[in-house]
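tool_call: predict_structure(chain=1)
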Amino acid sequence: MDACRQSAIYSVHAVDDTRNSRDRNSCALCHCANVDPLGFALSHFGSSKRFPHNAAKRDSSRQIDRCFWRKTRRKRLLRFLPQCTLDSVITARCNQLSMKQMSFRLILASLILTFGVGPTTPAQTSVPQSHSPSPASMDFPTILYGAAYYHEYEPYERLDEDIRLMKQAGLNVVRMGESTWSLWEPADGQFEYAWMDRVVDAMGKAGIKVILGTPTYSIPTWLYHEHPEILARPLGGAPTFYGMRQNMDISDPTYRRYSERLIQHLVEHYRNNPYVIGWQVDNETSAYGASNPDVFQGFVEHLKKKFGTPQKMNEAWFLNYWGEDVNNWNDMPTRDSAQSTGYKLEWSRWQQMRVTDFLRWQAELVRKYGGPDQFVTTDFAGGMKPDVNEEEVGRSLDVAAINDYHRTQDHFDGSQQALVEDYTRSLKQSNFLVTETNAQTTDWTSAFQYPPYDGQLREDVYTHIANGADMVEYWHWASINANQETYWKGVLSHDYEPNRAYAEVSRTAHELQRIGPQLVGMQQHNQVAILWSRDSMNAISFMPFTSRGPQWSFAPPTADYGSLVSQMHHALYSLNAGADFIFPESAEFSHYKLVIIPALYIADDALLLKISNYVKNGGHVVMTFKSGFANEDSAVRWARAPGPLREVAGFSYQEFSNLEEPLALKGDPLHVGDQNKVMYWAEFLMAEHAKPLAFYDHPFFGRWPAITENNFGSGTLLYEGTYLSDGLQTAMLRRALQEAGIATDQSLPTGVHNVNGVDRIGKQLHYYFNYTGSTAIFTYGHTAGTDLLTGKHVVSSERVTLQPWDLAIIQEP
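tool_result:
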């Protein structure tokens, strides 16, 4: 099957204004003229995706690069899809069809040819029906590359000029409309579309795809004036005011009622618009710290369902401490001054549940009222949030999306993008979208303006793609001339003229027009996973193990769960070991040779048993301090630590200590020189079956091992009873990778990073990034292939030169 047919819905090739003069039987993707109804039927009804043509427009003036039906009742002949050049990706897919599938499709094709059966036109569309999230990754034919676009923010009329510059640069997608409820609905019940219709229409005619957002994250002034009660009440009940975005109670019935009406109007209006390929529900959603009466009452109902009786809750949370037993649900105290660690943890879960419910509700509305070929996503704000259960939200989405901002200039090394995007890719075990990332500079002030060096914008795009992004969009197209994000600059500066960033974006876009189809949909097959626990992150934040201030100051921590996760991921990154994330609720250990478990402070017995069985059956684990210490209700286990992990870990402990100053390990056992130090926390491990690997170099702490390793069944568990330095952590994980039999390329020069994957037709792809300002030379260690960027053939063991902030993408045959 050809590329025109299979990928027409998301085709990103521009169709110029001369298309109406072409033969009406020609394909809007490549303009070839031959008609192949049989192939048409096979391709369109053979797709695993929802039928892409239900919303096609009959008006010839609305033709775009999307194959659609043209049905003639008298001749009953399908007249649109051509005989295009076969695309290798689709050919490979077609070759995998079973005989049963092919037979069905041939029968269907014959029915179409005989009876003229086809998708209905918009006028024949039935009542909107909700559909479920796509179980597979979105099947884009190439990389989507563009920016968020806000024509409404610009100080003068320049839509035509913006589109001219976008087309000239080679951009193919924009996201719009998510930030201006006040324009969509300037007064209660008064809906306006014309201001956006002209923008959507102009974009589509230029071959630029549109993603629209539901604009519910920033309420209009009239809604605040009519219903000030919908603003989020913070813990403690401090007064709240209008002005900042994301300041509402997302569970409030009044807010939901107005939001639903808005969403229905918008989505129905664009349901059949051929240019709108998807919807982003809300924007960077969180719980916003709301503790309004409806939030609290919902929490009490949640507790009733979870515990049944107040007495069971009292027991789980040890509420007889300080005499705070709740003997009647009507006596339940609010979260404002709660001291109970169990209460705090369950409240954080409730806030996550509220966010999940809100985004699921929006996704269902979009599916109910939207077109069946419009995907649904939401943009997570960097991931790993304490009040957003991203993995649960992901179940309601067709594709996950992330807003990924990172450091630039001399701090640009790809590691921040990898952390956030490895996490995002793992939410649905599939590729994702980058809905926002750095264009020029970021920040809500002018104190942190660090525009990228030459080459970094381009390298950043390929960094996202190597991590699994099928779309990269900047925030945003043009810098805003006033208000909070004045200095969060777009591709264009405040003068709206082409500039250094625009030139680099244009270079990248034209490269992607050529090689994007070979890069989109690349899959990583990693042998390492990090077990990430939001409960542990939150519970440790209630009882931190470090502090920046003196005792009783309750100052922010120096190090925490997040810093430990980042350190361990960065160590893997520096070792060129790709990593996925797994989650306690759905952890599948068997896919991985090595599982990294940072500070699993909160865990039920079942999860700890699962870890033990994984090791027993041959798995390898690296685990850190505080793991297994508390149960699922944030109560410290009343068995000797590490509780149910004692057998698999091969040690126990009864004491622990903070460390006022870093300590060295005796004899520098891992040969890391001045990085031979540990800090913050030390558990007094008493080895039972485990082998000590390192001891503290200290007259008191030196009697206890700092790091142990235990053989259990067919596997091993390596335990770090303290917080290691970055260099020490890297050395430990290098050792763990070797013991697990995981080979990575550790011969690369400093600053050169490697990512490996498999493209959609099974070919190996090898990315090599030079994240330095100097020329770098590395030895290519894989099967001979072709650098997609330069077209040069590269043989195994060849010395390859990378210019500063440059890369190579080598594809094996």
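agent: Residues 1-129 have pLDDT under 50 and may be disordered. Proceeding to next step.
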